[in-house]
Amino acid sequence: MTTRRNFLHSAAFGTAALGMPELFIHALRSASGADSAKAFKEVFPLVSPESQGISSSAITKFIEEANKCAYEWHSFILLRHGKKIAEAYWNPFEKGGKHTLYSLSKSFTSSAIGMLVDDGLLKVTDKVIDFFPESLPEVISDNLKAMTIHHLLCMNTGHDSDTMPVLRANEDKTWVQSFLAHPVIHAPGSHFLYNTGSTYMQSAIVQKVSGKKLIDFLKPRLFDPLGITDYDWEESPQGINTGGYGLRVSTESIARFGQLYLNEGTWEGKRILSKAWIDEATKFQSSSQDNDSDWGQGYGYQFWRCKPGFYRGDGAYGQYCIVMPQFDAVLAINSESWDMGKSMQIAWDTLLPAFEDNALPEDKSSHKKLKDTIAGLALATKPSDSSTLAKMSGKKMVYKLMDNDYNIQKAMINFDSKGSTLSLDGKKMRFDYNGWSKNKGIVYPLLPEGSNQQGIPFAGSATWIEPQKLLLHAKFVEGIHSDLITLDFAQDGITISMNGSVTNSRSQKDDRKNITGNLV
Question: For residue 466, how many other CB atoms are within 10 A of its CB?
Fold first, then answer.
């Protein structure tokens, strides 16, 4: 009754009524967790692909096919037999940088439920209402009474629509109250619906049972043992981690999480999760979509089944933790993909046929090509007209701005042969031609009120799209999306317009108002 497309639409537009553009949702910062990414202790030896039974040329083909797509990849790590055989980052994304996970967060949340089950502190058959007697509606329906943790895990709560938009919109109720008050139309267990609110309830149960926020509960139980230091997680207004989205970790951390599951719950000889829980969480628990796509293969405990017969955690726009027990392999991917099925199909078509049971002869030439390909990866930038570059190089323009939503009074643009520097009330942002300039420690000044992305680092590129129009591309390198800023230079004025990459991909107009000004 629900589709992945419905969820992505909700993820991209669910907060529009709150005045938060699609670009900025689900990347909110939290005070919990690590303040910044720290250097990882390497746990996966980097070895040649051939030594682990796959050719370097197959991985090069995987990258080449990814680059052909009309969307962007940010990073991936491929593990086999517990060893790292490929790791790649498309500049300006970097090793160790956090990345927004969207719904890949769900798999981390269900792991916390598994730990409490392993501890004997709860059972998946426990009724949801029993954990929140203070938050129940006046009338408790039979369907609500029947809802269990199992139903939360399997997306079988009986709701007819995702509860998360309702939770976020009901300012007069807590999120738990809003969830419990939402009509349960179907008998729990009879109706699959991708319901992010149900994962929030898992987070609330973890906090209720353990006395700790989900992120704090997982620190000694998951993050510390796996050496994961690069994390933060969004919270609801009640101080409960959102559970179904909002976690940020690095690609390396996703790979470690996947290897834990591939190891059936052990890490460096220590038991983190029981094998029984891993088996239950990753097997077919519920039918999902009625089709033959990778979303139609069934659903486990916050994990999807895959067409080739294995399982994955995944998040909107292509955040993947793909675990392949048949091949003793893990594939972690971060991207901004507008066709998530295509992303997986590239892996199925290029990597799966190349896995061999035994080591292959070393191929130095192919391995060198793979390393060179990885070293040259970067998000594409558009070239500018050379005559415009030459004409503008060395110039500086200063504008007094009209009243605007950001209370910015002055804009100054400096042009040189390598790029442009835009200063808004003294806040300097660098945008390179034919490349990316890292803007770390700079607060991006064009965020709408309530976006809470202040301080997230971004990289900038610049392109003259017309003689009087400069396009500035701000890529949030610890998020997913971009902001596209167009500077339109009239004879004595300027118009600054903004459009997020999500709205731009759908040929839609951003809600933010233009900023105008006069040349000083």
Answer: 12
Closest to 343 in 3D by CA, of 366, 369, 314: 314
Question: Distance between CA 438 and CA 479 in Å, rounded?
Answer: 14
User: How confident is the model over 243-289, as pLDDT tens digits?
Assistant: 999 999 999 999 999 999 999 999 999 999 999 999 999 999 999 98
Question: Would you give the distance in Å from CA 369 to the centre of its chain?
Answer: 30
Question: Pairing relation of β-strands 427-433 and 458-466?
Answer: parallel
pTM: 0.92
The pLDDT of residue 338: 86
Which positions ≥6 away from 167 have C-beta within 8 Å? 175, 178, 179, 197, 200, 236
Token output for 245:
């989205």
- Read off the pLDDT of residues 179-216 as tens digits, 9 standing for 90 and up: 999 999 999 999 999 999 999 999 999 999 999 999 99
As given in the structure block, the two tokens for residue 220 are: 């000694």
Q: How far apart, in whole angstroms, are the C-alpha atoms of residue 451 and residue 178? A: 23
Strand partners, 472: 462, 485
| Nearest of 44, 471, 63 to residue 253 by alpha carbon | 44
Cβ atoms of 86 and 236 within 8 Å: the answer is: no
Helix axes 105-118, 275-282, angle to 10 degrees: 140
Q: Which tens digits make up the pLDDT trace of 368-379?
A: 999 999 999 999
Q: What is the pLDDT of residues 78-110, one digit of tens each?
A: 999 999 999 999 999 999 999 999 999 999 999
CA distance 418 to 423: 17
Strands (E), 215-267: 232-233, 247-249, 266-267
Rounded CA gap, 244 and 239, in Å?
Answer: 15
Q: What is the spatial distance between Cα 59 and Cα 78, in angstroms, rounded to a whole number?
A: 9
Interval 325-334: pLDDT, tens: 999 999 999 9
Residue entry with tokens 């731009």? 504
Query: pLDDT digits over 496-511, tens only?
Result: 999 988 877 777 778 8
- Whether 484 and 500 have beta carbons less than 8 Å apart is answered as yes
Instruction: Identify the structural domains of the chain with CATH numbers, from first to last.
Output: 386-519 (2.40.128.20)
Beta strands per DSSP E along 263-340: 266-267, 270-271, 304-305, 311-315, 319-324, 329-336
CB atoms within 10 A of CB 91: 18
With helix as H, strand as E and coil as C, how does 491-502 read?
A: CCEEEEEEEEHH
